[in-house]
Amino acid sequence: MIRKILTWSIFALIFAVSTGAVILVYSIFQGPPEIKLDENTVLYDQDGQVLSVEHGVQNRFWVELDDVSPYVIDAFIAAEDEHFYKHIGFDFKRIFSAIYHNVLAMEKRQGASTITQQYARNVFLTNQKTWERKINEALIALRLEIFQDKDDILEGYLNTIYFGHGQYGIQAASQYYFDKEASDLTLEESALLAAIPKGPSVYSPLTSLENATERQHWILERMHETGKITETTMTRAKQEELNFVAAASEQEPEVGKYFQDYAMDQASNILGIDRQAIDTQGYQIYTTINQDAQKKLEDTIKQELPEDSEELQIGAVTIDPRSSKIVAMQGGRDFDQTPYNRVTQAERMTGSTFKAFLYYAALVYGFTPSTLVESRETTFTLENDETYTPGNAGDFANRPVTLAQALAVSDNIYAIKTAMEIGPENIVEAARAFGIEADLKAVPSIAIGTGYLSPLEMTKAYSVLANQGWSVKPYVIEKIVDRDGNIVYQHQAETPKRLLEENHAFVLTHMLTGMFNDKFTDYMRATGANVAPIIQGHQYAGKSGSTDFDSWMIGFTPEYTTAVWTGYDDHREMTKVQDFRVSKQVWAKYMSQLHAGLPTQTFNVPTGVVGLKVDPISGKLEGPACEDRSVMMYYIKGTQPKEVCSE
Questions:
Q1: Set 39, 54, 80, 145: catalytic member
Q2: Where are the beta strands (DSSP E) in 181-297?
Q3: 361 with 422: CB under 8 angstroms?
Q4: With contact defined as beta carbons under 8 Å apart, do 447 and 340 qualify?
């Protein structure tokens, strides 16, 4: 009998050793388990500050072990796996102890899962209580122990635990419950967070503070028993009152939602992956947004949009012309109501804002700021023998007016006559020089903006003027870093190309400052004179425009170009005067705030032009008869007026 028992014992030992060897060899040949977790994608502003966090069902930030408070590490090891750094993935002493006590109680009262086993279950398995799951858990735990060191396992564990309320990982939990980094957690906070994963629905302090506190105290006691803290420290930590914020960041209004959405679309195109997939891939996306500018834009829009015109929409965007960065963007009244981005997706009739391209062409074809054209009601006969009688926003001069004044007061007769003289096809060609790529019809009415363009494309074109005729290519993504810290995309600025002739570009730019100068007011008022008091202190150039369905204001300084459009999505007619005023009011108040505190910069005067005091009404040099109304005007050398005004 003894011999039989011995034989069977030897056989069992050989079988156990052989089985263990097979499992070990199998685990080695399987290699390390591949870990793929959803991880939040973070958008940053141009200063490296967090703009927003994009995530799927799981809110998770991966954080390295060195960036976790030591109290967190000690608390979890004391609570979950005292011998973590000593075992090989399985704590056999704990296993036998749990079996013993569970058998005595005839129910499961103790668990024996190590941190490694829990990590394996969190990442690769479900919580189903089946033998198949337990075997797989053991095999994965063994592979983790073979191919990863203890700190890597602990780091993975802390980043995959569920803390309730959709928060995964210690960093997300730390931010959610205490609004701080995981590295800054105190002893009492660490012990509280270590209490939650045992049962988030039971131990969340937001749903049951009593249960959470009771387990926190038990963990502090375990930390004392394992020699991690003194009794005095334990007692003090138990008495500390905790302040929960429950995702304080979510309580603040989110800034730049239209910008964020556009940036994510651009990132999707850059990376060549699905837009929704980016949210959970752990990317760090660095954008060009200036949060201060964006807040100013959003606040101004809220203040100026009339409450009794709830369906009136707005699109506004700001570009830094020297760097091509889009620094602010608002694509509508409210992103949550409609994510349709009117800056990038809507193409609207441009109205008189198109005259910038018209008059650049006119300058190229020999016009000067003093060129006179008769302004009176006129009926034009087109190539198909149809007649066309454009109107003005105000009166007709019924006399010749200068180009500088016609631009400042936005005279449509002057614009159409100029278009007929230089040819509509040359106006379209001029728009192409500004970088306009949209399909435009070469007809006389193009001069007063019957073409359709997006606010972003118009802002880009005006930014070319702000950039002294050099190319501008707007962008929103600076760089993209993957979850492993690799830079997978870095914006490369293109070498600027000269798009506009320098002297012509400056003369046009300076003429565009006239809309804010009441000295150009005569038969009609300078179109920006009413907002001129708002923008004192800096030199602005710009052009407003309107149709029956649209209202525009586009203007710039050397630092920023901003376009504001207002109208109705269904292209209904705008009948209220206040609806037409919104674009200018938003533009002026926002630009004034945006430039507050910045040093005053004027547009650089190239050597090929000359500045003279000129009467804007007659286009003649300043003289005694017009001294009180003369203004500084610029001409390409050799084209300046010679005659002095005498009446």
A1: 80
A2: 284-287
A3: yes
A4: no
Q: Say how far apart CA 325 and CA 499 lie, in whole Å.
A: 18
Proportion of the chain above pLDDT 70, given as a percent:
82
CB 389 within 8 A of CB 412: no
Cα gap 388→299, rounded to integer Å: 42
Handedness of CA 252, 255, 258, 262 (dihedral sign): negative
**Torsion sign across C-alpha atoms 464, 439, 418, 555:** negative
- Mark whether 352 is an active-site residue: yes
pLDDT tens for each residue of 233-251? 999 999 998 888 864 444 4
* DSSP labels, 194-228: HHGGG-HHHH-TTT-HHHHHHHHHHHHHHHHHTTS
- Our CA angle for 149, 151, 154, nearest 5°, is 110
Mean pLDDT of 117-134: 56
At residue 389, does pLDDT exceed 90?
A: no
- For residues 343, 533, 522, 602, the Cα torsion angle rounded to the nearest 10 degrees is -70
Q: Are 171 and 63 in contact (CB under 8 A)?
A: yes
* CATH number of the 61-250 domain: 1.10.3810.10
Q: Classify residue 118 by burial, with Cβ atoms within 10 Å: 0-12, 13-18, 19+.
A: buried
Tokens, residue 80: 């979950």
Residue 174 has pLDDT above 70, yes or no: yes
Using the predicted structure, report yes or no on whether residue 88 has a pLDDT greater than 80.
Answer: no
For 624, phi then psi, to 5°, come to -55, -30
Q: Express each pLDDT in 31-59 by its tens digit.
A: 455 555 556 678 899 998 878 776 554 55
**What's the pLDDT score for residue 128?**
44
* Average pLDDT across the chain, whole number: 85
Overall size of the chain counted in residues: 647
Instruction: Compute the chain's Rg from CA coordinates.
Output: 35
User: Can you tell me the mean pLDDT for 146-150?
Assistant: 70
CA distances to 2, 316, 610, 613 from 554, rounded to whole Å, are: 101, 10, 26, 27
* pTM exceeds 0.85 for this model: no
What is the residue whose two structure tokens read 């020297």?
322
Distance CA(476)–CA(463), nearest Å, equals 15
Exposure pattern of 426-437 as b/e (b: 16+ CB <10 Å)? bbbebbebbbbe
| Range scoring the smallest mean pLDDT among 89-93, 470-474, 492-496 | 89-93
Q: Is the pLDDT confidence value at 184 over 60?
A: yes
Q: Would you call 471 a catalytic residue per the annotation?
A: no
Residue ranges covered by each domain of the chain: 61-250, 607-647
DSSP at 624: T
CA atoms in the 13 A half-sphere facing the CB of 259 = 35
Say which of 352, 410, 445, 592 is annotated catalytic.
Answer: 352
